[in-house]
Design brief:
With 513 residues, the protein is mainly alpha-helical. It contains 18 helices and 2 strands. Keywords: Cell membrane, Membrane, Sugar transport, Symport, Transmembrane, Transmembrane helix, Transport.
Length: 513
Amino acid sequence: MAVDMELDGGGDGKGKAPPQISLSGLFLACMVAGGVQYGWALQLSLLTPYVQTLGIPHALTSVMWLCGPIAGLIVQPCVGLYSDKCTSSLGRRRPFILTGCIIICISVIVIGFSSDIGYALGDTTEDCKGPRYHAAAAFILGFWLLDFSNNTVQGPARALMADLSGRHGPSAANAIFCSWMALGNILGYSSGSTNDWHKSWNCIACGRRWFPFLMTRACCEACANLKAAFLVAVVFLGLSTAVTMVFAREVALDPVAAAKRNEGEASGLLAVFKGMKNLPVGMPSVLIVTGLTWLSWFPFILFDTDWMGREIYHGRPDGSPAEVTAFQEGVRQGAFGLLLNSIVLGISSFLIEPMCRRLGARAVWVMSSAVVCVAMAAVSVLSAWSLGDFGGSVQDAARAPAEEGGVRASALALFVFLGLPFAVLCSVPFAVTAQLAASRGGGQGLCTGVLNISIVVPQMAIALGAGPWDELFGEGNIPAFAMASVFAAAAAAAGVVLLPKVSVRSVSMAGGH
């Protein structure tokens, strides 16, 4: 997971303006953002629970997510650099978008068919039971490839919007980009919340299945549902990529101009590293508060649907058929909660700028962290309430009847409630950074790049530590959420003391995982 750095566009490298495009054309040219986000929503909602059915223990699932911050730290800056000076006849951005989308489709197919691949390589267990380590290896390979290719696409896609915005301006381009991401989130989480995808591929009228390869000896109903959902993602991504390739008419970069640009890039990169000592006053404080804020959020981002399946629905991915069914139902309800969260996020995004103008960005950021502190504590309390007096490991509670009504409704309400502070997370830190760079110097690119580091490093820490931390206490996801509440309180306190007062003129949502 990483921040998209808005790369400098607006020209073809020869002093000519890019071809003018209508607003509807700009909207269609950005469609690939929706296709990528659709798959990413499925990844966030379904894959942490699913990998545990392959035999990967809960304590190690967070480590799998290291690919996100690593890709954000390495892949996006490198792809952004090379796309700036690409001389392909397709333009600067489209070659990377097309290549990345092809790799995304391959990686999604590998993930969806990982059980069948593992069975072909020698896994002996069937019907989604027991550890299947060949399948797990194929899954993790596809998972890492998916995250790296996602980051390959998203940076050039946003830069393409800046290149093409023309008379419409970057604000319109950013709004269109975020609209497609919101639509992709809603569609993706809707897909993750249903259990009927594989059934929809059946021919009801003729009484037979059109695609019998979905359910196999190695792939049970839950696996087949995942497979079908990701195949739909491939179709949607293919369609959105084709539309972007057709409507995003780029002008090829002149090789001579590219060569001159390359001469300055090396010194420019060195200047970025040397320039870190010249950050504007107040920026180090923003980095500290940003790091603490992401430490409070990433446990929930990693384990939200897994939490619903384990603590709220008392299921387990490797238990009896009834326990597996309960776990899968909880995961689907968690995906539905993320759908509701995305809707609230979209609505709240229009409220952030007025709030910042009235209360100040620092106050909005601090209040958001305080809300997250309360919410993460509520997640821990709700988990304890759901588990009752069972004590010990959360897995012991799987054998008891799951509470219904209030607990589950409260869990869904928490998903909805977190939509507003998540909107703050996706906008205010970037707006504060941009304003500091504009008013106190230091450079937008440098400040955004350093802010990106303050986001991905905490994600790495949580990815490495959350699973073992939970395992240490034997309490499922509760310890990580309790620690998240502590980090949120620290972020709020640090925000009061450290954050500079800035006047935010405009706030826009940042794209990302």
